């Protein structure tokens, strides 16, 4: 088996990041079109701020809204995919550094991954 080079790792990581952004933007586009089809004729009042409804404030709620065909749920889901993209980059870094046997970078990446998990778990 050939050596897993830094260049190959960087190239694969670039593909991962581009794919994550493209998938998130594609979902957002579908959600936006669906939103316009479902709610395009509605007139919004901007006199008072109204946040997202309760079902769109948790991952499980967003997933239920996506499965129900709710456009706002799909848009929120695309934001989750966009947030997940750099997290997956850190997971991939752990994998890549492990293959390269660069243990210090594996440890640093694992610390970053734990910090991300702790920070994101507060919002789930």
What is the strand and helix layout of this fold?
Elements: H1 6-39, H2 59-67, H3 71-100, H4 103-121
Helix pairs in contact: 1-3, 2-3, 3-4
Protein architecture, described:
- This protein is 74% helix and 0% strand.
- With 124 residues, it is mostly helical.
- The protein has one domain.
- Helix 3 (71-100) packs antiparallel against helix 4.
- The radius of gyration is 19 Å and the shape is elongated.
Brief descriptors of the model:
4 helices; 74% helix; single chain; 124 residues; 0% strand; mainly alpha
Strand proportion: under 5%
Large-scale geometry:
elongated
Helix content: over 70%
SS content category: mainly alpha
Q: Helix count, per DSSP? A: 4
**What is the domain tally?**
1
* Number of beta strands: 0
Q: Quick check: average pLDDT? A: 90
The radius of gyration over CA amounts to: 19 Å
Q: Sketch the topology as an H/E string, one letter per element.
A: HHHH
Residue windows where pLDDT falls under 50 for at least 5 positions: none
Kindly report how far apart the N and C termini lie: 41 Å
Largest sheet: none
Short description, anyone?
This protein is mainly α.
